[in-house]
Amino acid sequence: MQSGYAADFILALTVESLNGVRNRSMAGGRMREADPEFVRVLQLLREVQAAGAVGMRVEEDKAKGSTGVLFFRREDVPAEVVEKVAEIRRLLKLPPTCSGST
């Protein structure tokens, strides 16, 4: 994503879930469809990314054995993009606003 690949493409291929909202899976040889919310979040992320309203960075903590994706929002974002970000947060059951920096 940092090099410009579409967020929806990368996340659809690499994550099992986003905050409990599940991607499709072939675990155990059985196909499970993605939650509708997962599909919608990916669509919205692509639109927000295409609008240039968000930047992304992947950080890996080898000591803890964890990886996280950090999203950064620009300040001068059009209202329709802000609403898409708000919908993403609702679908992922995140607070409406961040308590830290954006």
Q: How are helices and strands ordered from N to C?
A: HEEHEEH
* Total beta strands: 4
The overall average pLDDT, rounded, is 84
Portion in helices: 25-40%
Strand content: 15-25%
N-to-C terminal Cα separation, in Å? Answer: 18 Å
Question: Which regions have little confidence, pLDDT < 50, spanning 5+ residues?
Answer: none
Helices, by number, come to 3
Main sheet strand line-up: 1-2
Structural class: alpha+beta
What topology emerges from the helices and strands here?
Layout (H helix, E strand, L loop, with lengths): L6 H8 L2 E2 L2 E2 L13 H15 L3 E8 L4 E8 L5 H13 L11
Antiparallel strand pairs: 1-2, 3-4
Description:
The structure is a single chain. The protein is an alpha+beta fold. 35% of the residues lie in helices and 20% in strands. It is built from three helices and four strands; from the N terminus they run H-E-E-H-E-E-H. It has helices at 7-14, 36-50, 79-91; strands at 17-18, 21-22, 54-61, 66-73. The strands form two sheets. It has a two-stranded antiparallel ribbon with strand order 1-2. A two-stranded antiparallel sheet has the order 3-4. Helix 1 (7-14) packs antiparallel against helix 2 (36-50) and helix 2 (36-50) runs antiparallel to helix 3 (79-91). The two termini are 18 Å apart. The model has no long low-confidence stretch (mean pLDDT 84).
What's this model, at a glance?
The protein is an alpha+beta fold and 102 residues long. It has three helices and four strands.
